[in-house]
Input
Amino acid sequence: MAEAMIAGILGKGKFPHSQIIVTNRNNQQRLRKLNTKYGVIAIKREQLNFEEIDILILVTKPKDIEDVLHFLKTKLKPHVLILSAVAGITTSWLEQNMPLGQQVIRIMPNTSSLIGESATAMSPGKNTREQAIFRGKELLSKMGSVYLIEEDKMDIFTGIAGSGPAYFYFLMEQIEKAGNEGGLDIQTVREISAQTMLGAAKMVLQHMESPARLREKVTSPNGTTAAGLAALEKYGGGMAIFQAIRGAAFRSKEISTELQKNKFIR
Output
């Protein structure tokens, strides 16, 4: 996810490579690869100069957050804005455990950040001021669209957008299988399905009509589309998508609960 965010921020060429510093606990090989691939500054975390850092993005596994905070507690500066992409970790916990009362924003990007097409959520902590929210949104918007939501809606957002790309990839897998069985080569049907999905998405975004209304417009009685939709209904396609989102949202909440029981968050 960290690499996808780096690629997204740099993707349109409007953000200087020299203003991104990446670090990790001890994987120097990984840092060298990021430096070579993206031209960002990659250094050991002990070399970080927090006087020069304005925004600190935390992209780590929840189990590692205590180690990160232990490292930060004697080094962090009051002006540094924290953007946290750590799953399950609340803004209130971060605020309580940051040494200098940092302004904190919890974020949830998705892997489409890589190409500047992420749907990213941001939920500010109670101490975060408007100017900090603006700065955070300005940076995240380089990776795609940004949505300011209440933190208790982060689980359902995760189910829709955080996990969402995988649902569409799965759908495209099924389209590839059907197209290939019908005589099209895999690469051709892959491009066809991707373009069809892209076109449908743009219709929703640009025409501002509901998906239900757009579906009705392309569905003639007793036609091919009606037959396809009937099959989707028969085999539970709609309910499967609905339950996939609910399942992912439930797991997101479950992870937070598990962390809470383990005293990672409070």
